[in-house]
What does this fold into?
Amino acid sequence: MTVTLYNTAARAKQALQPIDPANVRMYVCGPTVYDFAHIGNARPVIVFDVLYRLLRHVYGADHVTYVRNITDVDDKINARAVRDFPDIDLNEAIRRVTEGTADQYQKDVAELGNLPPNVQPRATEHLPEMIVLIERIIAGGHAYEAEGHVLFHVPSMPDYGRLSGRSVDDMIAGARVDVAPFKRDPMDFVLWKPSDDGQPGWPSPWGFGRPGWHIECSAMAWKHLGAVFDIHGGGIDLAFPHHENELAQSRCAHGTPVMANIWMHNGFLQVEGEKMSKSLGNFFTIRELLDVWPGAVLRLNMLRTHYRQPIDWTVAALSETKAMLDGWFDQVQGVAPAATVPAGVLDAVSDDLNTPGAIAAMHELAKKKDFAGLRAAWDFLNLGVYARKDATFPIHPGNAEAAGQAAAAIGDAALGETLLARVAARNAKDFATSDALRDEVLKRQTPRLAIRIADRKDGDVFVTDVRVSVS
Ligand SMILES: [Zn+2]
It folds into this structure.
């Protein structure tokens, strides 16, 4: 089957022709880890997760490599580290900010039903690759050193700007705002910059310093996917200058005509008709939304709009999405999935990720009462994991399986042990312990996750019924 994708670089939909069908390679720009991810950050994660699932379906799960980086060196991170941990060593403060934020990010995107990528490289682990790339770019005459900086010389690359389709005049007008005196051209951008004592840095041929943001992605993509790969993705806001600069760096370092064969960009997200901003009070983190809505509702709501269109994120749409998901849930609950994903769904997703088309096909399946097909589509888009509304797990003493299922439904695998210990304490008439362990489990409740724990006698033993309701 053919997968067709809109290639920003060609301004057209093109059939995907993998360089190596045994290893289809995709790079997506990931988060800069200094704060909670917001719902706009979730859009590329969900969009490219659907593409990842499609590629795994078409080429085989072992024949796709998906790389999504973590940017853990950035001036915004330094500022946050100084603000949040003023009294400790800067490097330790940076480590705390980046690790805490990265952990939170992984939890948030997992709750939205996304598979982890095959590789999640961190920028700080790729300094040697960055230095090699910069040396090659300088050697090729595309970059120069000035006052401890290394700058990419944009006029050295005649077709710079072709990816994003910007005119040189537009780009110069944007670049002129704040031009450092050592730049040969206003559009030249930083590959390396000096660090002073109060800033993170690494030794380099150009002195103690740190990389520019763009070179990080060029280095990580090269290390994990090679000089040329199949798909490069990210939000449309990254097309210029970030992707334009990644492309320029990688092509000049490797002497290749392209960096990726297909460039994909998802559209903007706005909230209730306005640009999301903290000052307007319409800024939502993924975490805040997950406290109110199941992850599957957020996921399906994102997929109701085609990825290249702007999306208007509204409470009204979320309510409609939840009603849709609840209806399907009742129809697919306990139904075995059809052996294949229904053609209408797969064809739509294969046509430049037409998820609204796939959702329309799911409505058709529901209308025809093809619930096995609906279930297969539901599984393919991974809508079910967090949509379980209500389930009761009877935990007999020593029954680790039921305890594990209850823990999974609550979302904390470690609770399985706690639940087993509790039912054992209850049977031993150690009420103090059983009450304390019950309270520990109930602490996991959130506005959307209710837990009820009740004991009943089954023959000679007490059995705990753990009821988990997700709304
Ligand atoms: Zn990037």
In short: The longest helix spans residues 90-111. The chain has a mean pLDDT of 92.
